[in-house]
């Protein structure tokens, strides 16, 4: 048996000795070397349990969050005009064109918004018609989220990272409470440390577009850009996780826009069934007061528990966060289940290719994730049960971006946004695998 095992291992060891070393690269930033596209053994073979990939990241090393490489190739933050369409990756455009060709994207006229007012559709189009169904006018599209499950508060905050984020995160940590952050891509560029903190706390990261515009007033390509670049920045900041949810600024979506989000990027649209108007607390004049918000919250939280509450709240300012902090005890005292979007609407799955911020990540790009393997919600349980064993190690799920090789944010070339690179390996890792195989064979 020893001789047989040795003979079987020799050709594999020869392959390992010729496989290029990752640290042989002469430059510090490079694409990862590819492993074979699939194992020789069938997927249900026990060997796959030994060499599971995607442990807490997708196996790709990303640029450090906040570094110049991290933000390279993305649109300028808070630019006043449309995003340069030459920046949009070809794969995103192809996916949009495919969806249009399949007639999966309704041919709805693009409305205009004058002076920040509600969008007005061309040719007298009725925003509440079944063809348009504008959420701005309270028309509900099948598949979009408005209400929570009975007895739940779907906790989320818009417009982060912003002035109130640090205070909000400290409060949530003190209560061991998770939430969903609907992030603005432009704000992420300016507040990378807050993005890292959100993720490390285990909160869900979701999309609130790149520059907070009325999405129904944008062309198909501009909708793709606003969603896609925000998704990509979240992906590159979280070890390759792909957002599952998005919320349109001002709650402005219609059948065309929601279809683009779903058909191109696989995201579910989230609106709300109660609005605090807390974003106006710092406006001049404000449209509400802290007392009014507390009164409304008390009414909602002591009233009927069906449907569940999806309350629009913001992390824009100290005042808006104070309003939430004042209402939070009412949620607990009245026995509401307070949870993020992934837990309530995603089957306890926070991302399209990962169950949580600590579980395994499927290697996928933004376009292919919607059709890829679905994450296992049980990974959340597995990750928590293993947390103590791995506490002494640096968690690869934290978006620290450490590592010799980095995949930058989208470059100006379309291929720059593709982070679906294969895992890297070294001679030593191959040798370890082969030695383990020999030992297993000796014991067989």
Automatic annotation (TrEMBL):
Cellular component GO terms, alphabetical: plasma membrane; side of membrane
Membrane topology annotation: Lipid-anchor; GPI-anchor
Domain NodB homology positions: 151-339
GO biological process: one example: cell wall organization
Cofactor: Co(2+)
Broad EC category: hydrolase
Main location: membrane
Domain of life the protein comes from: Eukaryota
InterPro entries per the UniProt record, alphabetical: Glyco_hydro/deAcase_b/a-brl, NODB_dom, Polysacc_deacetylase_ArnD
Stored SUPFAM superfamilies: Glycoside hydrolase/deacetylase
Composition-biased stretches (Low complexity): 369-417
Catalytic activity: [(1->4)-N-acetyl-beta-D-glucosaminyl](n) + n H2O = chitosan + n acetate
Protein's name in the database: chitin deacetylase
